[in-house]
């Protein structure tokens, strides 16, 4: 039987990358040497089987997604990813699962040149807790509290296909197999907008940012609350995912505005930064869309393409009330 | 019903401490500003109900222990604790549980003047993942790989009472109620040896160190393997916990040498450092005992008080094979 230490050695210990970790897996702590004068950005997410992913989820995709959702938090801060820890509870140490999971994890880690620097493994209900570390220059972080009145409201990429796939799996929405498969890529293999977030912070062209994980309306609500502002959102300007874009207006509005699992960035920036934002986004091949503006009046106002108010019954996802 | 955001606000968000966290709970990431030229030590532990603690465990004790086991890893590195993140999966958001857990957590955090800087909450089987951050001067870390031949082998505090309490709960060993209660304090409310670890590192008087969580023999084995050395351990010199000390020799030997859940430090240091170590330990009111020595010959030799070899069938705890 695979022991805890063999498991770590075989699947999670790799030759050292030339990054900022002076000491990785195998001691009581990892040691990280921050760049001179840099701040460390830290985010921690826990994924629970049956809650954040289906029982029996493909291990490769799960490895990818577990790291991706954490990198998305770094992206929303504008930090450069450096490394991460992994705490893993597993019902059993199964080689095929470990092989897939570790490949999914490290393929994404390699894409961003970051290192697994430590963690923990234990027996238990399948639960994945990743804590990710990034660095950024002091005062460059994209904070939720930094939105200003008259800022434009921007969204990266497209929204709603992950939610559409979930609806397809749950048979809440009829989807043919090809459409489900296409939409499900967004659910299973989200790509964190790390490069865009870094540029927005480094070039100091954005004010506030958040990553969209619980649905745009709910997540944008955190920016509004923490910045003490309101916003008007053109729901019909929201960029729908390729599959969702083919569906009826009501579904498109609902899933772009409050789908969840999108892992796109929502950010605010002054109108004077429009061309700089478009250039930055183009330089990292990330589409961005202007979808509204920040208002002095508190609250979020939804409107359609003509500017008429929309009254959608939407809410963000809450783990304890839903 | 208590929402995820209310839960965080009510139980885990506190007025900012004047520590190194520039931005705590409530944004996509926490921001930590390391001291100039300092390294960051990072450790992550996951505690699963039914595995690391009994179902129905008292919430206050669980809050304490969850943080204590992580601080013990910082202690074993010699790092000064700075802050931590908490990822928490809970079957339900129960106020009485959250109140007890957060009090246990913050009472210990306050004792070390550290701050909860971020995390995650979700519904799921009760699972607690804490990632803790400390800082230390470059090249001062107490590494597992640093033991040298002829080093003394030292243990802080006492060993085995936590294991004795577990045996009492499991009815493997007959314990009267008072003894069980006394021993159980070590199981439920371990005190991480942070001050001792920091002194050993800062004064550069110890070579290698590890914290004893899976049983001394198993944990010491990591030092030996990573340092490429062996050791001779005087099992009868191992300091037994107050309750275990009253029990028969065989039980005392087994539970001091391979009990687990001790959260004491095992460290090595040259004989020339003996008086400095005793002075450092006395200055932080932490007993230390010299229990063996590091040898060039690989392997761990156990002996009794007379120096005669002991053949105990011991093994460290492994989460996937036990």
User: How much helix, percentage-wise, in residues of chain A?
Assistant: 25-40%
Strand content of chain A: 15-25%
Q: The CATH topology of the largest domain in chain A is what?
A: Phosphoribosyl-aminoimidazole Synthetase, Chain A, domain 2
Order of helices and strands of chain A: HEEEHEHEEEHHHEHEHEHEE
* Distinct helical segment count of chain A: 9
Rg of chain A (C-alpha, Å): 20 Å
Second CATH tier, the architecture of the largest domain in chain A: Alpha-Beta Complex
How many structural domains of chain A? 2
Termini separation of chain A comes to 39 Å
Question: Could you list the spans of chain A in which at least 5 consecutive residues all have pLDDT below 50?
Answer: none
- The top level CATH class name of the largest domain in chain A: Alpha Beta
Number of strands of chain A: 12
Describe the model.
The structure is a homodimer of 322-residue chains. The first copy, chain A, is of the alpha+beta class. Chain A folds into 2 domains: 4-136, PurM-like, N-terminal domain (60s Ribosomal Protein L30, Chain: A, 2-Layer Sandwich); 144-303, PurM-like C-terminal domain (Phosphoribosyl-aminoimidazole Synthetase, Chain A, domain 2), CATH 3.90.650.10. Chain A contains 9 helices and 12 strands. In chain A, the strands form 3 sheets. A 6-stranded mixed β-sheet of chain A has the order 8-10-7-11-9-12. In chain A, strands 3-6-4-5 form a 4-stranded mixed β-sheet. A two-stranded antiparallel ribbon of chain A has the order 1-2. Chains A and B meet through helix 1, strand 2, strand 3, helix 2 and strand 4 of A and helix 1, strand 2, strand 3, helix 2 and strand 4 of B. Strand 2 of chain A pairs antiparallel with strand 3 (39-48) of chain B, so a sheet runs across the interface.
């Amino acid at each position: 039987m695979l022991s805890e230490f063999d498991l770590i050695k075989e699947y999670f210990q790799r030759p050292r990358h030339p990054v900022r970790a002076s000491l990785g897996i195998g001691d009581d702590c990892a040691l990280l040497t921050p760049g001179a004068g840099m701040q460390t950005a830290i985010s921690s997410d826990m994924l629970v089987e049956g809650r954040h992913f289906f029982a029996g989820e493909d291990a490769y995709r799960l490895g990818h997604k577990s790291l991706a959702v954490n990198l998305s938090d770094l992206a929303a801060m504008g930090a450069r990813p450096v490394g991460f820890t992994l705490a893993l509870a597993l019902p059993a140490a199964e080689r095929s699962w470990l092989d897939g999971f570790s490949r999914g994890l490290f393929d994404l880690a390699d894409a961003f040149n970051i290192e697994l620097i430590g963690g923990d493994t234990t027996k238990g209900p399948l639960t994945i807790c990743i804590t990710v570390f990034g660095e950024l220059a002091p005062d460059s972080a994209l904070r939720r509290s930094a939105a200003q009145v008259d800022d434009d409201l921007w969204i990266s990429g497209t929204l709603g296909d992950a939610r559409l796939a979930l609806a397809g799996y749950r048979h809440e929405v009829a989807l043919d197999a090809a459409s489900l498969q296409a939409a499900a890529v967004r659910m299973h293999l989200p790509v964190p907008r790390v490069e865009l977030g870094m540029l927005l912070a480094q070039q100091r062209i954005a004010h506030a940012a958040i990553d969209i994980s619980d649905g745009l309306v709910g997540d944008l609500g955190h920016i509004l609350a923490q910045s003490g502002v309101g916003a008007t959102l053109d729901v019909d300007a929201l960029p729908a995912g390729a599959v969702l874009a083919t569906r009826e207006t009501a579904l498109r509005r609902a899933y772009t505005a409050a789908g969840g699992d999108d892992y796109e960035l929502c950010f605010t920036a002054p109108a004077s930064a429009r061309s700089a934002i478009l250039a930055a986004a183009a330089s990292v091949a990330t589409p961005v869309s202007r979808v509204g503006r920040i208002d002095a009046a508190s609250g979020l106002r939804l409107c359609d393409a003509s500017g008429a108010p929309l009254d959608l019954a939407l809410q963000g996802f809450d783990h304890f009330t839903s």
